[in-house]
Amino acid sequence: MSEPTETLDAAAAALTQEAESASSEEQYRRKMQRRQEVQQQRIADRTVEKGLVIVHTGNGKGKTTAALGMVLRSLGHGYRVAIVQFIKGAWEPAEKAVMERFGDQLSFHAMGEGFTWDTQDRDRDTRTAQAAWDTALSYIRNPEVKTILLDEVNIALKHGFLSVDQVLAGLAEKTEMTHVILTGRGAPQALIDQADLVTEMTLIKHPFREQGVKAQPGIEY
Fold first, then answer.
1. Domains of the chain: which residue ranges?
2. Model's pTM, two decimal places?
3. What phi-psi label fits residue 113: left (phi over 0), alpha (psi between -120 and 50 degrees) or beta?
4. How many angstroms separate the CA atoms of 38 and 94, rounded?
5. Which of 21, 23, 29, 129 has the most CB atoms within 10 Å of its CB?
6. For the segment 46-89, what is each residue's pLDDT rounded down to a tens digit?
7. How far apart are CA 127 and CA 77, in angstroms?
8. CA-to-CA distance for 172 and 42, rounded, in angstroms?
9. What does each C-alpha distance from 67 to 3, 98, 171 come to in angstroms?
10. Would you name the residues annotated as active-site residues?
């Protein structure tokens, strides 16, 4: 009979710390050997497979970039993928030029009209966000689409262009094995509570803020 999951998780963390402070190569080897055994048991005990609701939020850079890494993995497995951009559409980002090369395997919709300070029209921003959500919902309901990226949807929620209840109700309609990734700073607590995986990007340094470096192709867009 295997140990409880919590016990194995604690043992894995403790063994890693003990190995890092080992006083000899032999002690390090023994600790890491035991760590390997514990890790194999942890993996064997994880038998659940399901589609995930994934949230990337926080003030740090990299939320969309990390999500696109998941998109690339899904494409590599031959899965159908959909991307709906809620804010950045007016920039026509370079990602679109790359993703279009995947043909029918990937559907890309840059539906935003730029940042809110660019449009300066709340009603138009709301209509644009609602149209983007309608498009997103069509993919969420489609069992043939494995991974769906809702880029900057958290911004639309933060500004009230979409309601949290509306988005949560839509996520509840996804098929069992569909993954939905929602990015953008300011993710509401209700969405965080509903999600399976939440990562908060923390801003430590940024060249735009500290050095006056402008947004550059290949880095920001």
1. 5-45, 53-210
2. 0.83
3. alpha
4. 43
5. 129
6. 888 999 999 999 999 999 999 999 999 999 999 999 999 998 66
7. 35
8. 29
9. 34, 15, 17
10. 59, 61, 63-65, 73, 115, 117, 152
